[in-house]
Amino acid sequence: MQVLHGIAASPGIAMGKLCVIDRHQTTVSEYPISSDTVIHETARLTQAIEITRIDLESLKSRLAETTGEAHLFFIEVHLMILADERLVAETTEIIRTGLINAEGALRRTLHRYREKFASINDPYLRERISDVETVIERVLRNMNGQVVEPFPQHNGHTILAAHDFSPADLLQIDRKNIKAIITEIGGRTSHTAILARALDLPAVMGVEGITDFLPDGVAVIVDGLSGTVHIDPDQETFQSSLSRKQHYEYVEYELLKSVPLPAVTLDGHEVHLLGNVEIPEEGSSVLKHGGSGVGLYRTEMLFMNRPDMPDEDEQLGLYRSMLQAVAPHPLTIRTLDAGGDKLLEGMDRSEEANPALGVRAIRLSLSMPDEFKKQLRAILRVSADGPVRIIFPMISGMEEVRAAKALLEEAKLELSASGIPFYSAIKVGVMIEIPAAVTLADLLAREVDFFSVGTNDLIQYTLAIDRSNEQLSHLYQPLHPAVLRSLRRIVQAAHGAGIPACLCGEMAGDPLYLPVLLGLGFDELSMGAWSILRVKQILRRCTLERAARIAEGCFAYSTAGEVEMYLKSQITMNVTESID
Ligand code: PEP
Ligand code: MG
Question: Which pTM was predicted?
Answer without folding.
Answer: 0.79
